[in-house]
Structure formats: structure tokens, C-alpha cells
Amino acid sequence: MMACKFLARSIGKCMAFPTRNDRASHRAPGVRVHLGRWLRGALLWTVGGAVIAAAEAQPFHCPNAWPLRRALIAYDAPDVHYSAQLLDYLAARFEFSDEINAYNVGQLKQRNPNFYALSRNSLSDNFVYPSTQTDEHDWLTAHAADYGVGPEDIYLHFWTDTEIVLEGQSIVVPGWQPGSPKSGATAATRADSRVPVYYKNLTRRATNFSTAPIRALNRAYSLSRVAQPIIGGIHWEGFFFDNAGNYGLVVTIATGGAYPSGGQLAEHPSHGVMNSPAFKDWYWYQGIGLFMKEFREWIAGNPPELGGRRLRIVPNVYNLPYLDTVDWENAYVNFRAGDVLFQEYELNPVRDSARRFPEIIFQKNSLAQASGIELFQPGLSVTAAAPNAGTYTSDEALMSTLSLHWVTRTSNVLILGHQSNAVMRDDWPQNTKAIFDVDLGPPLGDPYVLATGTDGHSPAYPYTIYAREFSCGLAIVRERGTSNEDIDPTTSTVVQLPRQYIPVDADGNTGYATSQWDLRNGQGQIFISSNVIDPPCTPAWGCFANYQGLWWSAPAGSEAGWGINFAHQGDTIFASWFTYDVAGKGWWLAMTAEKTASNTYSGTLYHARGPPFNSARFDPAKVVPFAIGNGTLAFSDANNGTFAYVVNGFQQTKAIQREMFASPVPTCGVAKEVDLAQATNYQDMWWAAPPGSESGWGINFAHQGDVIFATWFTYDLDGTPLWMSVTARKAGPGLYSGTLYRATGPPFNATHFDAAGVTAAPAGIATFAFADGNSASFNYSITGAALPVATQTKMITRQVFRKSGTVCR
Question: How far is CA 237 from CA 161, 372, 447, in A?
Fold first, then answer.
């Protein structure tokens, strides 16, 4: 109940999952549809028991975009170089990878500067001699004394002689206690009693994190791994901590720890038995989990050692443990040990058998989303469930995995599709199937129970089918009920769909429109729709109050002549305030305002000096910012708020509102998955391309209807702040143009800002040509307003400073 109350506060209602069994039953008409993705040849497949030919396909694009977010795993050899075609594919679709070799990460960064790679470390254990992979062991033992740690303290040890099983082989590990060797604890040295994991050759030993000095030592080791560039100026941007969940270590204690009374750990406060409930809680909350939690909090404090770098903590929490209990959110959401949780081998409706799992997965995804935690659920295409009857093709299994993902996804979840741990493995091309580019659009609501019943299997299996409707489609999934159920055709049942939809296969080919579908045990299906429905603004889409756009004094027009632009991404607003200095000259200030309370954002106000607007080359090194005060933005709703500021000791509060000058006025959302290049509304903060190349100047676009009001923030001939504005009207596809103006007016600290005192002088012409939603050229020709004649063209792009930015539509 507490979880339900929390969700109700977070997303507006509890996950009640109503049943919809009252759908009309009727067969699909024999009508071909011409939607779909990349027909790769003739295809025969089954709809409602009938064999049909797929319709010829044209590219399918949902106008309300919600494309998949994706990440990958890349355990490829250091000398493996991906082809240019593969690199293009990865850079365009994937956000991050675990440790990837220097050449490939360099190529991916060149293609996509926002792509990031993580340093990998199996956190639960170290390789020890005679292994040849002892770099971590060697570093930790060499530096242990610097942190007041004994070299052997970095490992877990058996307190008593213990029989274990590794890779099917029984091994006796001697225990160590003060006075050993002795009866029941026969280790000749403490090192002999280290707890082995994974391999029967004993080259991997379990690590200890139970004291603050040990955790500090391990943090120093991790930082040493990311200190040096991978290639050029590229660094690892965080840590993929493998084998780092709240579960037991990969070692079996024979006969429940009774050899003769073995399994006890030396480091545990009461010498608890390895992998017992007492061990697991201690190991997570006072050991490995606490290490990651403290590390993440240390990074969040922006310590000087990082020089402003952002590092992410990404633990592999593994394989669904406790997902259906409160233990999951206690360990991973409330305790907050990571920024992104890697849920290995999850999720597939054959493998993860429990009829309510879609409901549970969605609830846990929502809890993580409400806490700002991202989830990487790579998925796994399970084709068989031996010894149970039935198989799926790899394409059918992939469809089922993606169907479950669409039914349960929230905007904080990333997927691979089919978990293949190396890009060059034979099964990795499953992750390049065209179905990944079929976008159903944002959800119209939460998952719900579409149908329940029993199938035709003998004995009959109960089933629950979940569905979720989207702006441009539908996904349905039937989770296998238990792990001993068959998945063969006798488990099939006919499902009545909410309305007619068009089925899509793994290659993106479309079939006939239909109002029903056959689902076997553990199967799912994705459909598209020819009827686009505009989505509601819901947290599941990542759609929260967003204030991006142009604002001015309230009531409208009362202080025309000054304004403030907001670029709102995540919990950060970058504000650019255009006003006038004490002499009445145009002056601008900027502020990065972080969220400090509900609907409230605060930050330091800066003004800057920099190279003049007509510089042949704008040198960002010559931009010098000066802190000049602070500001606070408080919003009462999506269109009204206040701007309180202190500048050079002068304090004032202004009522502000969104400026509306054309129709329609766009709605902006933190739709983190949206590809900015596909956007058709250009409202945002833009700067020189490539990003960061001319940091220090920018241009804000407020885009309403066929009009863009642009405010250009640059520098005068003497290096002081200069702003100009233009009302640019649409002159053709992607083309906007208008007259640039330079204004003078009452100073920012005027008790009453008199709009009649504002004078605007024509300065020239500005033209914006958009190649796509994230690439444009800015051409300006300055011919007046007491400025020197100048003509230049700048390539510009959106300034993305949180996730993937914000899109307005």
C-alpha cells in the first residue's frame, strides 16, 4: 500500500490494471496497408490462424516520437575494429557502452559526442595469481598501506574450514582465525582462506568493502582507471561495476555450510554463513552497496579531483532478484547505489515466468523513474524452455522481448534487445533488426489487462495478457505463467484487440490490419496504427512541467522591450536575460538555474566579455564570465511565474509570463528519447556547431506557428555584452528571415520600466536555414545601428546540457 501511495503521488494514480474483456470480436477485412519499415523481400506469416503475404512497406514514422533508448555491451577483443557502417549505426542509436576498445570508442565519439563509455570492473572479486589479469590486485596491495589497510584486508576469508562447489567441482577451503592453523581453521596463512568465486582454478577471490578505509582504497583505484585518456582527449565517463547486486556471491557452500560447521566468514560481525540472508544484507548495506552509494554521493558533490567531469555509477544488479518484493526498491531505489542499474539478461516473457511480471516491471520502472534512476534492461531472445515443449524462432523471441519492453517501458529505461555480450558475436545482428526503428509514439496510458482465461493446452494453462496503447500503435504480451510450462502451439489463444491494428514483424514488414491475434505462452506482438492519437502529457513519457521558451513581464506588454529565454532540460533551466545596463545600452546576463524545490529554480547570474560579433574567428578562450548576482525563478503554472534577482546589490522581483505572439504555441516536454534531428519546431537555445567550438555566444529561438523570434547574445566591438533580436518569418521549407534590431532602453534597475523608453534601430538582416531539427545555418548581414558592416554565416546546433535535451511541438 505504501508503494501504491508513493506511485499515486509520483504519477497521478495507482497501478490498478483494469480488465478489458468487452472488446468486440470480428475478423480483419482483406485490406492491404502501406505502412511499415524496410521491406526485405516477400514474407509469409500467420495472422489469426491464416497464412497471408505481408504488404509492401514504406517507411513508417510516428509524428509523436518516442523512439527506443538503447545501450550496448561490448566485450570485444582490443584489436577488433568495427566497420564504418556499424559505427554509424551504433552512434546514431546507442547512448552508452560498457568498456569498449580505444579505436571504437574514439570513432563513436567522433560520430556522436554524447555517446559515453564506462570503465568495467568485476566489483565482487579480483583476479589473483597465477592469473595473468592481476592489475587490480597489484594496485590495491601496493597502495593499501597509504589508506591504513592491510593488503589481505581487501578480501573476504573463511573463518572455518569450508567445502564449496565451483563449476561442479567440490573444493575444501581452509579457514583462518587467530592462532591458525588449528582444528577447524587449518589455513597456514590468511591468504589461503580467501573466498573463491566463479572458477575452480581459484584465480578469482571475493572482495571486502566492510570498512571505510577499504572503500576509500577501492575508490582511489577506480579513479586511477579513469584518470588517463582512453584515446586523444576521450576518457571513461563512469564505472560499469559488474557482479555488484544485492545477492549472494557465485560460490556454493556444500551441505548448507556444514563441513563440519563451515561457511562462516571472518569479516562478518557474527561470522555469518556465506550467502545466508544475514550475509547478503551485511554485504550490500555495509559493503559493496555502501561503497557504490558513497562513491556516487562523492561524485555528486563535484569534488575538485574530478575537474568538473561527470562520472556515472552503473552496477550490474543482475537477473530479477527480489523484483516482486519491496527488497528491490529498498536496495536499488531507496538506498540509491547507482545512477543506472544494469538488469542483466532481463527481460523476456518466456524466461521470466510469472503472469503478473509486466505489471510488476512497470511499477518498478516507475519507482526508479520517480527517483531519477535509469535502468538498462538488455533483454534476451529466449527461443526454447527445455525440457518443456515448444520453440520460437529468433525473430519471434525478439518480438516478444520488445513487446514486453514497450508494454512496461518508462522514459528512464534503455534496452539492447537481445543480450549479446560482444558486437562481433554471431547473434549480435539481431540487435540491428528494423523493428528497433518502428516507433509507436508516446503512451496513451499505463499498461492494462487486456484479457484473461485458459488456453487449449492439456492441461489448460491460465493466462493474463497485458496491453498498452500508444499514439501510433499497440503492444501486447503474455508472460509465461510458471517456469515448467510448455510454449508449443497448443498453448495458443486468440486475443481480441482494442481496435484494428497493423502487425509488424522483426524486419519491420507490415501485414494486414486485424482486430485479433494469436498468442502462445510467453509471446508478445507489436502493432502500428493508421490513426494517430495525440498523447496526454504523462510522466511515463517523461513529460513534466516544462518552461522552455520566451518570457516577459506580466501582464503582457506592460514592460515590452526586455525578456528572458528559458532552455529547460531535466531539472535545469539555462536562462538568458536580455535587458539594459545603467547607461541604457543593451545588456544580457545568463544563469544556470537548478531545481531547488517544486517549480522553483535558482542560480548565479553572470555577465561576460568576449570577442566581438564580427570576429573572423570567435575564440572561446577569450570569453571571461563574471558573477554579478543571483536569480530565482518560481512558477505558479506552465505560463506564469516570478523572476527575483539581485544584481550588483540591487534587488527586485518581476512577475513574468510566457510570451505568445503566434499560433500555435508549442508544448515542450522532457522527452528524453526524442531524436532532435526529427523535430519540426526549433524552439531552444542554439550555439555554434560543432558543440563547444565557439562557447560563449548563442541564439535563442522562440518558435510559434510560422514565426521565430530570435535573440542573439554576442559581444560589441569593446567586448561588452551585446544582444540583437529578429522576428523571422517562414520564407520556405526550413527557411526563416527577418530584420535584426538593436535596442536601447530603461536600465535593469529601474523602479518602473517604461516601455516607451525603448528604442529599436534596424541593424541588418538575419536568415536561418534548417537542414533538420538539430542543424542549421545562421547568416547575418550587419549594415546599421552604429555597428560596423559585417556579413557572416555560422553553422549552429542545439545546446544540449541535460540528457538528450528538450523538444517542443
Answer: 42, 18, 35
